[in-house]
Amino acid sequence: MNRNKVLYSGAIILAVTLIAALLVALVLFSIGASPLATYKTILTGPLSDLFGVTEVLVRSVPLMLVALGIAISFRSGILNIGAEGQIQMGVIASTAMALAMPHAPKAILLPAALMAGALAGAVWGGIAGWLKAKLQVNEILSTVMLNYIAAQVYTFLLRGPMLDPNELETGSGTPQSMRLPELAFLDTLVPGTRIHMGLILALVAALLVWMLLWKTTLGYRMRTAGAGAKAARYAGIPVERYLIVAMLMAGGFAGLAGAVEVSGVHHRAIEGISSGYGFAGIVVALFGALHPGGIVPSAVFFGILLIGADMTQRSASVPANMVLVLQGVIILSIVSAQSFLRNPYAQERFFRWFGRFSSSARKAGKGVQS
Amino acid sequence: MSAGLMIYNVLCLAVPFSVALLLAALGENFNQRAGVFNLGCDGIMCMGAFLGFMVPFSLKATPWAAYGNLLGIGAALAVGAAMGVVFALVTVTFRASQGIAGIGLQMLGWGLAGTLFRHFVGGVTGVEGMAAIAIPGLSKIPFLGGVLFNHNALTYTALLLVPACWFLLYKTPWGLKVRAVGTHPRAADTMGIHVDRIRYQALMLGGAMAGLAGAYLSLCQAKMFSDDLVAGRGFIAVALVYFGRWSPLGILGGALLFSIAQSFQLSMQVWGIKFPYEFAVMLPYVLVIVVLALARKARQLGPTDLGKPYNREMRF
Amino acid sequence: MTPSLEPISELKLEGITKRFPGVLACDGISLQVRRGEVLALVGENGAGKTTLMNIIMGLYRPDSGTIHVNGEEVHFHSPGDAYARGIGMVHQHFMLVPNMTVAENLALGLKELHHFMNLDIKGAAKRIREVSERYELPVNPDAYIWQLSVGEQQRVELVKTLCLGARLLILDEPTSALTPQETDDLIVRLQRMASELAIIFISHKLNEVKALSDRVSILRHGAVVFNGQTANHEPSELAALMTGHDVVLPRNEGSGIQGEPLLSVQNLCVRGDRGNLVLDGLSLELRAGEVLGMAGVSGNGQREFADALAGLRPVESGQILFGGKDLANRTPREIIHAGMGYVPEDRQTEGIVPSFSVKDNLILKDFAEPRFSKMAFLRKKEIDSNAEVLKERFDIRCPSTSTATGSLSGGNIQKVILAREISRGPKALVAVYPTRGIDMGAQEFIHEQLLARRREGIGILLISEELEEVMNLSDRIAVIYKGKILKVLPAVEATRERLGILMAGLADPDSPGDAQAEVPAGAAHE
């Protein structure tokens, strides 16, 4: 049973990837790039040396964390599109926390910074959860709006209150915060590369999320609220409460991702720090079948895609926005494939249509021969 | 500056600001009335904006230059309708979950517009755009003349579309079918109405109007294109449909409310009232959340099968 | 609708087969019906009646088999095609758009009123008046559907179908939501109409079949097992053919001894979805060890009453006393803990989580009890063994307890729900339409279970629209009308006719005579 399920999800993902690749090839073709060469650059380029591999892992850390949170929210029946804003809030809070106590020992400073990030993300996500639970505000719209709001808050803070005083002095005015004290850094795993402890953190988080969702009563409640809200209510589960809990967790993971980016990679809050991880995280989560076991590999895969897309921009002059197109196409094909595979009627109709089509094609073929 | 002049200035700005939202929301209203919640509206607007800009831009030095704007609008309408069909394929034929699919379409449109823009244009360039046409006579009416009758052709079109959409929805056979399909698709089906076909048509119309809204942004409002030109207006339009309680008149009211808020905010800066620019930009988004929170009672009035795929063979 | 075609005089089906994933819904069915004739199509739930009719209407395409109208083979791709040949259907669940007027609902289907950019609503209204006069089916074309009662909506459906030009009427369980009097009235009307129409009458109520039809065909597991003249066969004979074996639904042979009062509802006022008072001072008492049936036409507040009992609908005023505690406006959790069991109306969405496995659904209310969890972690072994035990005890037929519950048949889903509710050991059990749409075998099992719980001393509130079920199982019967209990009478005194009059909101004719003999339980709180 379980094995079948895994095979089944695997088949969906394979089919979806192929369809998406074909569709995007059309776009690539239309802007005069060779689809095959582009795909080759995207998929093999990042893995050609050790540094490339570690860079892929660096990218996959925030993707993994964000996607885990999104999986929790989707499983609980609330669609969190707001990871982008939650990441930015996490960046702000963890930066502020680290800068506020530069002399604290590492054992306090680093956890405090990470926690602050997670907390800020949780609050930002929790707003949407609360709006949904108490006022029935559509969570997709509210999280999208909160993304735009967060982006403005972020720019405001980076250009004003949190701007690095050095920037003012030198007059370059790059909107970025002061550099974090070194004690707030996540340790590097492989010297000479940027891969950091955040990877371990993300893998542990994946394990914890799996246990939470499938082994605990809290996870049972949340999945019930997501899979059958009405039945959950009749069974005495306060669905609204778990919508908020789910959004708090989802926001928390996104905020943590932001904090990890600051203390693991950039070491300060800069503009464009989330670089679309919030949206890519949705695709990673869907691609990983909303299951931690799928999200980990899928995050690595999208890490490759993101790095590869950067490379094509340089080598094949395919704009990096192409990644967004790819993500959009993947989402569209993944949700189509899922609902098609969930609907036996549609499948039957398709196979019947396919059968008729192929038999008439065969007849036509014979006609030509005779 | 007198209070009257201040109000006049705010309103003169508000009308053009409202057009893109109005067009997109009127289109989205058809989608939702037919039972499909199209969050991809924003992506469609991006593509509409791109083509609305791209066509006249590339025809600049050709003999076709005179028709550039018109062809741009045509291209925007066409691409909107085409994306509507894509969305219909995913949500109506494959019956995928509409919320996530909408986000997918939004990413697709947004990313595609950016990719093509970077590939074909690259940097920031402007287009001439559409000029305002003052309506003879009417534009001379004090106060109202300036507010209502001194705009470009698309603005007039958008305002005329309000009664037109109302008529289409309530007084024509197609509107009747759309309303039935969004509320009780099975009943419509048993009356010999092709539910899927009507939903495709509604999504095409809604998409075309979203494309037009995008073209308005690039051709008339900004007279240029950039990645973040649309800036979530598609999502705001979706929220406006709730706020307007699925009626064209209500949507007009919502669009005006939004644009008045926006132009008021701009005017305040002109008048020298200082507050951080970022908070001004934030305002419409905050407003959307407030509006959605206040509009929750309205949900019962909306199409009851909104967001649910229809499957003839699924039993009760 | 298309007067150019000759009116339908004969419909013939031959070898209709339709396969759904996993089910053979129709297995080589052949039928025939002529003008002036009423054919009753009888069968259990799930026998394939509705599927067959949807095939005739062009909603489903048959896998094989042919349909002939007046001797000519036809292929319908949509109900529009069927209407064009004069075939129309009144569905069991009314196919009316609630926020449109009667005329608009008709106009949806009348293509000749569709002009470019112009909809001829007046034409639709005119057509409705004509037809409603001709067939004596009074209908107001300008009324909104949601304003109409169930009986009125039924008339609208009939008029609508006739306006669309149907001369062969398919009526799918048309009496399921009507009071006995409304049913009798409908049957008289149909008899009158039958002379110039052909009618296919789908039902599982054999007395109605007997009263109305000329011929009867019985479907079982998708195949026709019997064809005959109605007049020559007794209802009991037809019942045996319908189920394939003799089913005698269990009856409450109660001693009439009533236990302690268990649940006492006093002056309950509850608002409906539209904000109007749907329950308006409802009072009721349920005692331990009795089945209290609640009869009434659906839409008279049953749903809201059940919701309020479950804690899912705010109570405006009044009390729900249960074991000495007022449960009004408590959370569902508190009510469950107080010992209230609940079998909800919509089993697919309210009773179970369809995508969850059977074993996960069996712990839906108890996952947090120490039995199934320890330190906030689920105890997998206990959950598995619990599922195996209940599967045996309640005869739940599923490939394994890990199967997704939503893929089971209605009867088995209901058994899962019942198993969960009963195994929790409740003091009282509220069962809302517990056997709606379930086959006879499962129905029998569920009835037996309910009666067995009654013997154990559980108080059972049975809300049902099947009078037969209410009369079979109950000790006492409460009739609900417009949010009030009109009367509570002992089951032994209830007859179909008497309940029907009460359900229609009329004064109880028998009441004055036996007022001394019976102290009406409903009057206990007056």
What does this structure look like?
The complex is a heterotrimer of chains A (370), B (316) and C (526). Chain A has 370 residues and is mostly helical. Chain A folds into two domains: 1-31 and 319-348, no CATH class; 54-318, Orthogonal Bundle (ABC transporter involved in vitamin B12 uptake, BtuC), CATH 1.10.3470. Chain A contains 15 helices and no strands. Chain A has helices at 2-30, 35-44, 50-75, 83-100, 106-135, 139-159, 165-170, 198-215, 217-227, 229-234, 239-266, 277-287, 292-315, 322-342, 344-369. Chain A starts with a helix and ends with a helix. Chain B has one domain (3-131, 139-301): ABC transporter involved in vitamin B12 uptake, BtuC, CATH 1.10.3470. Chain B has helices at residues 3-33, 41-58, 68-93, 98-120, 144-148, 153-171, 173-183, 185-190, 195-221, 233-243, 248-270, 277-294, and strands at residues 133-134, 150-151. Chain B has a two-stranded antiparallel sheet. Chain B is globular and about 60 Å long. Chain C is of the alpha/beta class. Chain C has three domains: 10-243, 3-Layer(aba) Sandwich (Rossmann fold), CATH 3.40.50.300; 248-339 and 426-526, 3-Layer(aba) Sandwich (Rossmann fold); 347-424, no CATH class. Chain C has 17 helices and 24 strands. In chain C, the strands form six sheets. A six-stranded mixed beta sheet of chain C has the order 6-9-10-3-11-12, with helices on both faces. In chain C, strands 18-21-22-15-23-24 form a six-stranded mixed beta sheet, sandwiched between helices.
